[in-house]
Amino acid sequence: MASPSLTNNTYLINNLSRDLHFKRENILSNESNIILSISCKKNIIVAWKDISHLEAIGNYTMFYFTDGKKLLVSRTMKVFLPKLDAEMFVRIHKSFTINLNYVSQFDIKEEMFVQLRDGSKISISRRKKKEFIDRVRKHFGYSRIS
Fold this sequence. Notes:
This protein is of the alpha+beta class. The protein has 2 domains: 1-30; 31-140, CATH 2.40.50.1020. The chain is 29% helix and 33% strand. The protein is built from 3 helices and 10 strands. It has helices at 2-28, 77-80, 129-140, and strands spanning 33-37, 43-47, 51-57, 60-65, 70-73, 89-93, 96-99, 103-107, 113-116, 121-123. The strands form 3 sheets. The chain has a 5-stranded antiparallel β-sheet. The chain has a 3-stranded antiparallel β-sheet with strand order 8-9-10, with no helix packed on it. It has a two-stranded antiparallel ribbon with strand order 1-2. It is globular and about 50 Å long. The termini are far apart. 17% of the residues are buried.
């Protein structure tokens, strides 16, 4: 009889451990943070406000931070997009997603680019132009952008 009891306790402990892990992840990935899985065993917590932009490089994503640091993660950008703050980040190209809070200037008429505070100049694709304009209007409250 000790054996089934041990099995039930092990099952309960495994479920409790899993539940605690999910609750911990939900608490840590609150409105201002994102959890980046660096590898199978290593995760880091990053504040959204510290990310200036992301670049898709094949099956990898390069995170660019406001302090000039970079982090290459072995996951596609598509994995991270749902985790990012939808109000703050917008995809402007197949390979780039930017933090609207770090836009210093943009041109949507001729060159179609965004320049970030660090000087990075990123092209806006024709397909993403409308979405970018809509998001800039909403984020900054501009109404006269065309």
